[in-house]
Design brief:
Strand order of the largest sheet: 1-12-9-14-7-4
Bound molecules: 2-oxoglutaric acid
Oligomer: single chain
Order of helices and strands: EHEEEEEHEEEEEEHEE
Strand content: 35-45%
CATH architecture: Sandwich
Structural class: alpha+beta
CATH topology: Jelly Rolls
Number of domains: 1
Number of helices: 3
Shape: globular
CATH class: Mainly Beta
Length: 202
């Protein structure tokens, strides 16, 4: 039985969004959070907006197969080789959902001031209508989506161990963000598993 039946699609139109709460059980999620916090190559990153370098308000790192090169926000990202834990998480998600990924963008929100602005994941390397599986570990944070035309906004308070899957035409018609929080927040890790289509395999 699929974990993503159409009747569980939470997007009211123009795309698919599935929220699998407690996809990873709390003790395992605790362990993964600690290991990933301590061992991933967290780094500050600058992106180019209107020709200016701007520091993003969170730490990031990019892991994947050697050919999973990803260019976003004006920056070319060469993947680091898979760590043992990232590979194990990828395999769990792939097996349970029947999907396939070759890379993961890891984000570390250090506190409530760290955030992610409105955007859609629609770089050409992802192809049309990408499937993106997004795992949350650590502090609860709001994940917000907004329809490009109707401006409808939907909020999802993502918690420790939750998996969100975006699919279909969602990236074409909706943007998403993780807003700053006025309430103090402890760290949160988010892993977005993606499939990069390399030049060799279009
Ligand atoms: O942190 C999240 O839940 C969202 C991350 C995100 O939007 C992205 O990596 O593109």
């Amino acid at each position: 039985m699929t974990l993503l039946p159409q009747e569980n699609n939470l997007a009211p139109l123009d795309g698919e969004l599935y929220w699998l709460q407690t996809f990873i059980e709390p003790r395992e999620a605790d362990r993964l959070f600690r290991v990933l916090l301590d061992t991933l190559a967290w780094a500050e990153e600058e992106i180019v907006i209107a020709g200016k370098a701007v520091r993003v308000p969170r730490l990031v790192c990019w892991y994947g197969d050697a050919d999973a090169v990803y260019r976003y926000s004006g920056v070319r990202h060469e993947p680091l080789p898979w760590s043992e834990e990232l590979l194990a998480i990828r395999q769990t998600i792939e097996e349970q959902l029947g999907l396939s990924f070759n890379s993961v963008l890891a984000n570390l929100y250090r506190d409530g001031n760290d955030s992610m602005g409105w955007h859609a994941d629609k770089e050409k390397e992802l192809g049309r209508d990408p499937v993106i599986a997004s795992l949350s570990l650590g502090e609860e944070r709001l994940f917000r989506i907004r329809h490009n035309k109707t401006r409808q906004i939907l909020d999802f308070p993502l918690r420790h161990g939750d998996l969100l899957v975006m699919a279909g035409a969602l990236q074409q018609h909706w943007r998403h963000c993780v807003p700053k929080s006025r309430v103090p927040k402890r760290p949160r890790i988010n892993l977005t598993f993606r499939r990069i289509r390399s030049a060799a395999a279009p």
